[in-house]
Request: fold
Amino acid sequence: MKTTTKNPMILLSALMLISTVTFAQLGYGLRTGAAVTTFANKGDITDNSNVTMTYTAGAFLDVPLSKSFYIQPEINYLRKGRSDETSELSTTSKTDFMVHYLQVPVLFQYRDVSDTRKTVFYINGGPYASFALNNQMRPADAVQITDNKKTDFGATVGIGFQTPICKQQIRFDLRYDIGMAKIGNQPVDYRTKALSLTVGIQL
Reply:
């Protein structure tokens, strides 16, 4: 009877100790930057025309699995869109269609860790889910669109490095993501694509 009573207590104590060590090693920070985005036909990774310049910002969490492997969940705001030009009676007009997303990637990261240098290079990749906050058309009276809030999902891959600058850990990140869900309010079966360059700080 005493053995069965002590075993759960030992297990609980071990879990609390592991949790304390894990949370002590967690890192977090903020990131922001610019992005080039477009909509492309399903499966067409080479179609990079009709791009729009936009921006992104968010927060990240570093969860260490070992010295070199991390899981990095994030929550980011990212606007994705496509810019189309149409010609009629020798007049060219430009129309931008954009979707404002709250994007949540879960990245698996490998770091090239070396004790002899302070700069750490890494590669990462993983899935993401995006939740459409709003649709936007420019000019606003181009066409009548409905509020079609959809969920997007896809994959992200990227490279980057982290280095100390003015006693702060600064992170430079280049990544590419491609969506797998159909975008609403579009004439064809478009998917999202984005290439972003961001700067982050580990707090």
Notes: Residues 26-202 form a domain with the Porin fold (CATH 2.40.160.20).
